[in-house]
Specification:
The chain is built from 6 helices and 2 strands, in the order αααββααα. The chain is mostly helical. It has a two-stranded antiparallel ribbon. It is globular and about 35 Å long.
Amino acid sequence: MQVEKGQLKSILTGELGYSEVDAEVYAGQYPELHETLRVPMEQWLEDRTFEDVKVDGVSLKEVMEVHGSNFVQATRQLNDLLVKPLSDGDRQVLVDYLQNPPIYE
C-alpha cells in the first residue's frame, strides 16, 4: 500500500507537529507498506483509530508506547520487519530494539 504523500504531509504538519520541511522529507521517504499494515493504515487515515496488529510478536501499540512514537512512525518501523531481507539474527536484533529500546542517560 502506498500512502498518498500529500495526505501524509498534511497530517504530519497539521496534527503531529512536524515542520513543513520535516514533513516533506518524511512523507517523501515513507515506504510502501506491506499488505499486513494496509487495513490499520486505511482505518487510521479515515478516523485516527486502528486495530492493532502484531509482526514477529511486536504490536503497533507496543512500538508506540515503548518508543513514544506516533502511528505513522510505528507502522514504518513494523514495515521493516515485513519487507526488509533480514537474517534471523538481524531480525531478532530489530525485534529486541522495537520491544526494548536502549535508554541513554
